[in-house]
């Protein structure tokens, strides 16, 4: 209970949270209706007005918002506040199209810092910590979110930025970093770099970390914990909401608490768009409840997870939990008629102690049949026989989760090209009809 940043809010009875949600939902709906032409038009098409929102369940009457809606109105067409009332801008990388741009008012930054402070304290950060932030400081939301939150907790922040892995390790050693953050797969990479430098990550003072921004399977989490002998928490978020800070797992490690005073969560079937039941898998849909710059109604995240039956968690928090994100609905691959999430493959790989940090799935077509090759770096240099044994073992293990047998190619350490900020796990070179 001593790791609560905002005790009153984090442990508030659910009925009370729902009252706050309804009040802020009504306010947000009125705001977007009056200030964002896109929503006014959608309300007219659906023949609704803000007065139709009387209960929280009425959220389903509201229009869904998609990434392409944001792109069609980029960069500033979805803003509810005038641009001159905003003081900061962030954007998604735009690798799959027009970047999604979000502008923040000073109050949006305040809320973001608060939710990040809650997430960081939930994962063990205190004002005594030396907090290293190995994330690029730029338009990506990651670094600033962690930076603001950690400062709010009162920790000493080292804004080390992304890359230069050897430098990151030296900074950890020199300043005695105790807490770190970032993109999940990068922490594993840093562990490998430390070992290559002759430094045992376990001997550094890093004892805690909060990671996310990409697929983060329990297997990867365990690998980071083992490599660094540290406690690891999972943080979820997206540019469209604020960046990191939407939810984090507490010490129970059985789901991520989502800050319901700021975000209203639904879980829907991505095909029928109808709500799914508790503990059923679906797409997370989020409505912002307190955002001023760019509030969003029912944003389709494409992220797949389950919501938990609500009871007060052992940690004392009352906010709803969701499972770790299984993957994005658009990451799901159909290979030879079978639905596969890259996370299923990662779970198998990360359990094997001979597997290194980097891997990818390469999809090709041979004689009109889909071929899957899983390329995997070994942790250490292996002999030919050892590589073949590992390939055989992984082939069978992967087959047990994806039904057919893939090709597996074990490669020496550091041979799969780094793909930038977030790991690129799928290379799809299949013939398109
Ligand atoms: O990745 C914000 C962030 C930064 C979160 C640092 C956590 C840590 P975007 O670049 O807009 O924002 O990407 C958002 O990344 O819709 C998910 O698909 C994925 N994602 C984010 N966190 C997790 C996580 C940041 N913990 C997209 N587990 C989201 C799985 C995650 N996927």
Q: If you had to describe this structure to a student in words, what would you say it looks like?
A:
The protein is α/β, with parallel strands linked by helices and 433 residues long. The protein has two domains: 1-330, Rossmann fold (3-Layer(aba) Sandwich); 333-428, ANL, C-terminal domain (GMP Synthetase, Chain A, domain 3), CATH 3.30.300. The protein contains eleven helices and 20 strands. It has helices spanning 7-10, 14-35, 37-45, 67-72, 106-122, 141-153, 165-175, 184-196, 218-228, 342-351, 384-402, and strands spanning 88-91, 101-104, 130-132, 156-158, 179-183, 208-212, 231-238, 243-249, 256-258, 263-268, 282-288, 299-305, 321-322, 327-328, 333-335, 338-340, 355-366, 369-378, 407-411, 426-428. It has an eight-stranded mixed beta sheet, with helices on both faces. Helix 2 (14-35) crosses helix 3 (37-45) and helix 9 runs parallel beside helix 10 (342-351). The longest helix has 22 residues, at 14-35. It is globular. 5'-O-[hydroxy(phenylacetyl)phosphoryl]adenosine binds at residues 92, 141-142, 212-216, 234-239, 243-244, 301, 303, 325, 328.
